[in-house]
Amino acid sequence: MKSLDKEFGDIKVSDCASFERTISTEDMNAFAQLSGDYNPLHLEEDYAAKTELKGTVVYGMLLAALVSRLVGMDLPGKRALLLTESLEFKKPARVGDLIIVEGIVRHKSLSTRILELDISIKRSAELLAIGSVSVKVLP
Amino acid sequence: MRTFNDIAAKIFSIKSEQIRDTFTAKDIPGWDSMNYLLFIAELEKEYNVSFTMDEVLNAVSLGSIRAMLVAKGAKI
């Protein structure tokens, strides 16, 4: 996969990018191995079903990692240097869900080459998480 | 609207009441090059102003940044 290469000057406030991704059991297992987080709420259906979540829940940081993809591959792409990321989780995502990750440029600082993007993570029209990122666009 | 001190406190991880206009990067451990740029970008967004690269490079203290904002008409 090759990242887009948007020049800072070509990016405008309200520019947006998005992609879809279905979360698989393999994604969950890979994330558990990568992070070392084997919490049963994410991996063990029998345990998770007895909690108030009523089933396993996709790792929040797996969703956050998809934001990294959005920034690093699409908006702005190749020149991105992610500085901050903030997410607020509203509803749980489940394995098998088709997740839509969207970013919209909310502010562009000419003096610092920093973009602020509003982030939304949805399942169809249902909002699962909202947040923002600050990204420096390298020369 | 967040105050200048609120933004500085958040970005540099210091208490708002400790902030002094005389503070420079030497006085604030969290004031590194990236946090400084984040601070500037946050001020631009909050007060709807734009700095030039020269202004960003030449500002040395919180007081000088505050003065630049005032000069651009920001009500802080």
Brief write-up:
Chain A has 139 residues and is an alpha+beta fold. Helix content of chain A is 25%, strand content 37%. The mean pLDDT of chain A is 97.
Structure notes:
- The complex is a heterodimer of chains A (139) and B (76).
- Chain A has a five-stranded antiparallel β-sheet with strand order 1-3-4-5-2, covered by helices on one side.
- In chain A, strand 4 (114-123) and strand 5 (126-137) form a beta hairpin.
- The two termini of chain A are 22 Å apart.
- In chain A, 25% of the residues lie in helices and 37% in strands.
- Chain A has 139 residues and is of the alpha+beta class.
- Chain A contains four helices and five strands, in the order βααααββββ.
- The model of chain A has no long low-confidence stretch (mean pLDDT 97).
- Chain A has one domain (8-137): Thiol Ester Dehydrase, Chain A (Roll), CATH 3.10.129.
- Chain B has one domain (4-71): Non-ribosomal Peptide Synthetase Peptidyl Carrier Protein, Chain A (Orthogonal Bundle), CATH 1.10.1200.10.
- In chain B, helix 1 runs antiparallel to helix 2.
- By secondary structure, chain B is mainly alpha-helical.
- Chain B starts with a helix and ends in a 5-residue tail after the last helix.
- Chain B has four helices and no strands.
- The relative contact order of chain B is 0.18.
- Chain B is globular and about 30 Å long.
- Chain B has helices at 4-12, 33-47, 53-58, 62-71.
- The interface between A and B is medium-sized, with 12 and 13 residues.
